[in-house]
Amino acid sequence: MEKGRMRNDKIRLDKIVGSNIRKERELRKITREELAEILDLTISHLGLIERGERGATSVTLKKIVKCLHVSMDRLFAEPGKTISAREKREAGVYRQKVTALVSHLTEAELKALTNTIKGIVSLRKTDNVASGNVFNEIFNEDEQWLPKH
User: Fold this and answer.
1) What is the pTM of this model?
2) Where in the sequence is the domain holding 97, given as residue range(s)?
């Protein structure tokens, strides 16, 4: 039963992210064809992502954030849910930390990281998705997840 619920959560999250990608793309009057070309995806694949029928990789999400000039938390926000100023600041801090950590990774390492993140996200509780605090359970305040330099 737990596996079915996790699958439903993933499907729901893929639909939220896909819908937000489409909304942000349309707000900027960018066609699906134009965005697909920029992202180096087929038009069909981008359509699957926007409809929530396929999840985007972390590499693709990073490209979308850069191209559409949106924050990652905006892509994961539920429709109609506004994000507080505190949540935006916290997300910005984590985004900077994650960006710094992944900026020197190879393509193979980014793919491995994508799979790891997918696994972690699939384990989080349903109420974290419902509350909009998608990454709070993963990246907690004690920063034990950061590598030691």
Assistant:
1) 0.53
2) 2-131
